Amino acid sequence: MEIVNLLFYFQHFSLTLPNFVKRVSTCPMPKNFSEWKRAASRLGCDNFENAPYVYHCMPSSFLNETVEFCGRNVPHVGGSCPIYTYKFEENKAPNFRNCSEFKSGCPNKFYFSKMIYKYPACLDIIKDRMCYKADPSCCSNMSCSRPILSTNGGTNGSTEKW
């Protein structure tokens, strides 16, 4: 029951984001560069290729939401996925989270954060479980059936299988 309450809190009581970071229901379609360019234009980071601040869309550090922002294009080593980290000061560059235990899809070589669209496993999160779908520990104790949260924070008794 305590896990359900914690999940309810993170889903319904959001931390404040800086003005330049926007919550979105989902990122543009992975591996579709033209969709990412359109999203960049919509957000005002038109120069996706070579600018100090480029379009990013990724999970937040809590893995319960997806955010987009114009930020610094930072290098990442293989075995990591970029994430947006909440900080008290202005955060204009993604951080990273280890993905080396993913079943598949973890970047295995050096890349820059704006290239996350090439790695769908880094974007595919299960928001109510706050984990990556490719992470084996995400469903290890739940056989990948998850309770559906109701609006009052409890479960409605049904499950969803994936």
Helix content: 10-25%
Shape: globular
Task: Kindly provide the radius of gyration, computed on alpha-carbon positions and rounded to a whole number of angstroms.
Answer: 16 Å
Q: What is the strand content? A: 25-35%
Overall SS class: alpha+beta
Oligomer: single chain
Q: How many discrete structural domains?
A: 1
Q: Mean pLDDT, nearest integer?
A: 78
Major sheet size, sense and barrel closure? 3 strands, antiparallel
How do the helices and strands follow one another from N- to C-terminus? HEHEEEEEEEEEE
SS elements, strand count: 11
Spatial gap, N to C terminus: 22 Å
**Number of helical stretches of at least 4 residues:** 2
Instruction: List the strand order in the largest sheet.
Output: 1-3-2
Low-confidence stretches: 3-13, 146-162
Model description:
There is one protein chain. The chain has 162 residues and is an alpha+beta fold. It has one domain. The protein has helices at residues 2-12, 33-43, and strands spanning 21-24, 54-59, 66-71, 75-76, 80-83, 95-98, 111-112, 125-126, 131-132, 145-149, 155-161. The strands form 5 sheets. The chain has a 3-stranded antiparallel β-sheet with strand order 1-3-2, covered by helices on one side. Strands 4-7 form a two-stranded antiparallel ribbon. A two-stranded antiparallel ribbon has the order 5-6. The radius of gyration is 16 Å and the shape is globular. Residues 3-13 and 146-162 have low confidence and may be disordered.
